[in-house]
Amino acid sequence: MSSPRQCRRPGCSRAAVATLTFVYAESTAVIGPLSTNPEPHAWDLCAEHAATITVPRGWEMLRSERTFSAPPEDLELTALAEAVRESGAAVGSVPLDGLDDLPLHRSTSQSANARFDRMGTAESGRHRAPVKPRPGQRGHLRVLPDPVD
Question: The whole model's pTM is what?
Answer without folding.
Answer: 0.45
